[in-house]
Structure formats: structure tokens, C-alpha cells
Amino acid sequence: xxxxxxxxxINGDSLIHRMDPRGKLFLSFYFIVIVFLCNNWxxxxxxxxxxxxxxxxxxxxLGFFIKGVRPLIWLILFTVLLQIFFSSxxxxxxxxxxxxVTDSGMTNGVFVFCRFVLxxxxxxxxxxxxxxxxxxxxxxxLLKPLTKIKVPxxxxxxxxSIALRFVPTLMDETTxxxxxxxxxxxxxxxxxxxxxxxxxxxxLIPLFVSSFNRAEDLATAMEARxxxxxxxxxxxxxxxxxxxxxxxxxxxxxxxxxxxxxxx
Amino acid sequence: xxIHIEKLNYVYQSGTPFSHRALTDVSLDIADxxxxxxxxxxxxxxxxxxxxxxxxxxxxxxxxTVAGNKITPETKNKELNExxxxxxxxxxxxxxxxxxxxxxxxIAFAPKNFGKSDEEAEDLAAKMAELVGLPASVxxxxxxxxxxxxxxxxxxxxxxxxxxxxxxxxxxTAGLDxxxxxEMMEMFERLHQQQNLTIxxxxxxxxDVANYADHVLVMEEGRLIADSTPQEVFxxxxxxxxxxxxxxxxxxxxxxxxxxxxxxxxxxxxEEQLAAQLAELLAGKGDEQHG
Lengths: 264, 291
Hints:
The complex is a heterodimer.
Chain A (H helix, E strand, L loop, with lengths): L20 H15 L5 H17 L4 H8 L3 H14 L5 E5 L2 E4 H27 L2 H12 L9 H31 L9 H32 L18 H20 L2
Antiparallel strand pairs in A: 1-2
Helix pairs in contact in A: 1-5, 1-6, 1-9, 2-5, 2-9, 3-5, 4-5, 6-7, 7-8
Chain B lengths: L2 E10 L7 E11 L4 E6 L5 H8 L7 E6 L2 E3 L8 H7 E4 L12 H11 L4 H14 L16 H13 L5 E5 L7 H18 L2 E5 L3 H7 L2 E6 L2 E6 L1 H4 L3 H6 L6 H11 L11 H20 L1
Parallel strand pairs in B: 3-8, 3-9, 6-7, 7-8
Antiparallel strand pairs in B: 1-2, 1-4, 4-5, 9-10
């Protein structure tokens, strides 16, 4: 459990930590969009330099970001291999049946790899420097205009914050129940496939039961404190748009222009 | 089935920025058939220590020997199963571990895992259900239909059904009403007496320590700071207060009397001891006045 770093907040007071969550959320999504503008070495180098700058500004060691890539490494390698073996065009190095390795295929492979890593670094940056509650508040504020077309924005944000809030609780609970069942002679992750699937039942059923119980308790506790939906609810944590955020937005505008100029 | 622990160290998430030392150089012995209470604050390392006793955690450094099984940092996970067969572990709020369709099946789960046949396991389950005071009428019900107190009994029966020689209890009475608490503690005492079960109890209830234990371990910030008898630990209220620990009700009452000048020979731990000492003192005083 302790290896899960994706989505873990690390306390700090860096420039990035202090940004408005709305700005960070929006720019992270925007970054993912403009990564797709890159199509040559110059643009990828520029984007990598930007991401490294943000990592530096966040005061969080690079190791955390690299750990964020690890869970997805197989997906990335698979996509890279697809690119390498199935791209056509350019000089052919090797050829066998449907597989061809060409120089443009190799370049594409490297580009896809970079694209994945850049996107993961950027989303890891968001979750490492922003508390879950800030993220869901920020999302709620960003999506607020959608209430006009009857999108249940408050409910979505509430569901999101409850889900995020209970991830650690659920993980603790899982460890606890796993321990209890281990003490009763269950061996998790051992034996053949059927045995392994069977060993999950004594874990999942108690988890479901306690989640339902907790959900009911939570609903009661919220109603007891006067919760009646998001309409007209005021916020204790105000999110403030500061000069830094404006500067960041300008930086991204400049970045976009540079990308458009540099790309093929 | 004694326990011997030597220089046990444990570090959570070792090697990460979240690394956190939970146990430092803990060495202790627990004798066969003893009733040991472990006390100490939340976060003092009690639960971490307990989890070593049946191999849920492996030491970062040091060794422990439980019922003849030696565990070192290099012990393989497969070897731990043999240990778990001997050590029953009742967790805090054990009712969270119930999952089977019927009470009987849930109690029979552990013995089946440890190699008993279905029939043997269910016979054992029925016996254990009776032992913990579950009415036979509920055995075919779903455990989730029972009351909280009964669910806990089912969970405890499920651990006892492993027929362990060592029983580890992590605050077994948390969340029970006073009557349920007393019944539960009396039941463990009965098991201790009748089956010569070695019991290790983690608790915040000093009364339970005074009433049942014959050996006390005090933990603080991952270290063992006292290893003695209840009599000795509770004889020094100042030391206890310095470590933010309380006294059993009876002893606290006696300490107040002692402050007012009642000359106790030693501070009584249980109501019987208090009554006996008071009776003796009053009789003595009576004699003086008359004499």
C-alpha cells in the first residue's frame, strides 16, 4: 500500500503549492491538450524544459515524479512498441511480415514515450501540490457555469471529495481486514488462480459491508449538520486568484504560441 | 509456547520519505500460560508489537521466537503460516472480519484454512459458539443480522476455533456496554484458567489489568519502559502519572485514602484486596480504641 504515490499530496509552500487550485487544474488540463501540438524535437525539448522548470519550482524531488510513472510503465512500453513496429515511412531498418522498423517509427516511439511522461509528470505535479479538497473545490468552481444547463455540479464535486477523502480510510480498512483474515489462515497472493480469487471474497465482503455502513453514518452526520445540497451553500475555504496565477496563464499563452511557431 | 523477543526494531515505510520508526530495541519474555497486559498511549507501538507476534509484520531488525518458530527479517512469508496456527489474534472491532453466509460457516473458516475437514471444522465451530455464549438458534443465520455484541462473539469464536495456544487480544472490549465488557473479560479469564491459554491483552482499561493480568508491559514511543507485575507498576502512581497512564479505580480510591493518612501496607489492586485490607485496618483500629 505504501508504494501508492499517485494522487498523494506532499505538504509544502512553494510557488506551485500557493497557486490557485482553479488555475492549476485548468492549466494541467490545458497542458495535456497542447502536448498534442508537439510533433518535432524542438517542441518536445521545449515542453520538457517547461515541465522541469515546474518540477523545480514545486520544491519536490524528481524521484516522486518518476515513481508516478512506474504504475503505467507497461502501458507506455506497449504503446511505444506499437509505434516502433507499425509505423511506415522513412528508412527501413528491419522488416518481417507485418512488422517494420523504420527511422520515423523510432522517432515516433520516442515522441510517444515523451508525451506519456510529460502528461504523467504534469498530473502528478497537480496532485502532489494540491490537497484533494482543493482539487474538488476548484473543480466545483470551474464547472459552476454548467449548472445553467442542469449539470449536477455540486453533487459531482461532493462525490469527488468524499471519494478522495475516503481513499486512505479504505486502504487502512483493507490492511486491517487483510491482517484479520491472514491471522485466520488466508494466504493472499498465493496458490493457483482459483485459490487466489477465492481468497479475495473474505476481503471484499467485509469491505463492502463497512463501506455501506460508513456511507449511512456519513449521510446521517451530514443531515444532522444541516446539509441539504449545494444550492446556496457558502464556502469556508475561499480560493483566491492571485498575480502568480495570471503570470502562469500568460506563460502558457506564450508557450502555446511558441509551440505553434516551432512545430512542423 | 513461550515468547522470546530480542532487540526487536520496526520501521514503517522504511526507505521512503514517510519512514517512521515504531519500535526500538524491544526485548522481552512472555512465559507459557501467563496473562500479560500491554499498556501505553495511542501510537506507543503496542499494536505494531502485537502484529509481530503472528507474523503480520516482520522485524526490520532483531529476532523473535514464538512457540518455537524463529522470525528474523529474512523469514519467508510461507514459513509464517505455521506460526499463525498457534497464535489466535483478536483485532480491535473484530466483527469487521465477518463475511460468510452463516454464523457457523464463519466460525469454521479458520480451522478449515488450517487443514481441518469440513465436518471437523463445523463441529469445532458449534462447540466454540457455545463457549462464547451464542445461542444455537443463531448458528444458521447470517452474521450480519446479529446485534453488535453477538457479532463480536461470532468473530471471537472464529478465532478460538483455530484452537490457538496463544491468544492475542487488541482491546477486545472496545465499544461494548459495561455488562458485555465484564462478560467478555470473564470469558477470556475462563479460557486462560481452563485451557492454560497464554493471553496477551492490549488495553486502556487499567481495571482489567489489575483484575486479570499477572505480567505488565508498558510501552512508550516505541520502547518498552517497564516489564513487571501489576502490583509493582500500580504501586507508583507518580511514575504512572508522569507517563500519562492512569490507575485502576480501586487503587486510585486507595491512593486517595492513603493521602488522607490511611496506612495501607501496599496499594490494593482489586476490590477484594481493598476490602480485605480495610477490614484488617478497621479491626486493628477497633482493637486499639478498645484496648
